[in-house]
Specification:
With 76 residues, the chain is mostly beta strands. It has one helix and five strands. The protein has one domain: SH3 type barrels (Roll), CATH 2.30.30. The protein has a five-stranded antiparallel sheet. This is WYL domain-containing protein.
Length: 76
């Protein structure tokens, strides 16, 4: 996941994450990582239209958004 976070920062790419919220609910968000910190990511959340902090320990999946042809946008 670190690679996905770093590439999101570097290339300003939107990624999809699945995480466990503070209320212990599963949530899926599309975000653009602004800052990759040791224990968290600071990211712009497209759904909330606001900058949010996501704790890495609560992120269970992170990947580049899929293109219409099924390929990951960040895949080379």
């Amino acid at each position: 996941m670190e690679t996905v976070f770093k590439q999101s920062v570097k290339n300003k790419q939107v990624i999809d994450i699945i995480y466990l919220s503070e209320g212990r609910h599963w949530s899926q968000r599309s975000v653009r990582v602004i800052q990759n910190q040791p224990d968290a990511i600071l990211a712009y959340c497209l759904q909330k239209r606001d900058v949010r902090t996501f704790l890495k320990k609560n992120i269970y999946s992170a990947d580049f958004q899929r293109r219409g042809n099924g390929e990951r946008a960040g895949a080379s």
